[in-house]
Amino acid sequence: MAEDLIITGNTKNELYEGLLPQIKGLITGESNQVANLGNICAALKETFDFFWIGFYIVDGKELVLGPFQGPVACTRIAHGRGVCGTAWAKNETQLVPDVDLFPGHIACSSLSKSEVVIPISKNGIVVAILDVDSSELNDFDATDVEYLTEICQWASDLF
């Protein structure tokens, strides 16, 4: 079955408002974690043309690369290391306007300039994170955090 996104809106808010019900429709009724995480990434990438977007899944003491869209990426990230590992360790969203100023930033790509990382928790325990990178400085804001957090709340049901 073919799926098509309808991308409408002139502002970031409008784009998210139009996209969220479509993402919900893509993942409703599908139980496969990889398929759902993959479609979430693809829908967000297609709508916003993020430089890189993907999920890292907790595997013991590391985050392991899951479904993503963009250039090749770091495969494993240690707990507490970089932006992703910090979001996991603190169970807090990390909004980074300039990755070069983040202590211990892991440069999977030198083209990444700003980043937002949202932890995905199940019963208060981080099970995965959503990592979104931009090739522009200061590209993410509270609007991104709000809507991406909502998507991550839905994604927690996949774990």
Key structural traits:
six-stranded antiparallel β-sheet; 159 residues; alpha+beta; 35% helix; 6 strands; globular; Beta-Lactamase
Can you describe what's shown?
The chain has 159 residues and is an alpha+beta fold. It has a single domain (12-158), classed as Beta-Lactamase, CATH 3.30.450. It is 35% helix and 26% strand. It has helices at residues 12-27, 33-48, 82-90, 142-155, and strands spanning 52-59, 62-69, 76-78, 94-96, 114-122, 125-134. It has a six-stranded antiparallel beta sheet, with helices on both faces. Strand 5 and strand 6 (125-134) form a beta hairpin. Helix 1 (12-27) packs antiparallel against helix 2 (33-48) and helix 1 runs parallel beside helix 4 (142-155). The longest helix has 16 residues, at 12-27. The two termini are 25 Å apart.
The biggest beta sheet reads: 6 strands, antiparallel
Distance between the termini: 25 Å
User: Which architecture does the CATH hierarchy give at level 2?
Assistant: 2-Layer Sandwich
Give the fraction of residues assigned to helices. Answer: 25-40%
Query: Can you tell me the CATH topology?
Result: Beta-Lactamase
Please give the oligomerization state of what you see. single chain
Quick gist of this model?
The chain is an alpha+beta fold and 159 residues long.
Fold topology:
Elements: H1 12-27, H2 33-48, E1 52-59, E2 62-69, E3 76-78, H3 82-90, E4 94-96, E5 114-122, E6 125-134, H4 142-155
Helix pairs in contact: 1-2, 1-4
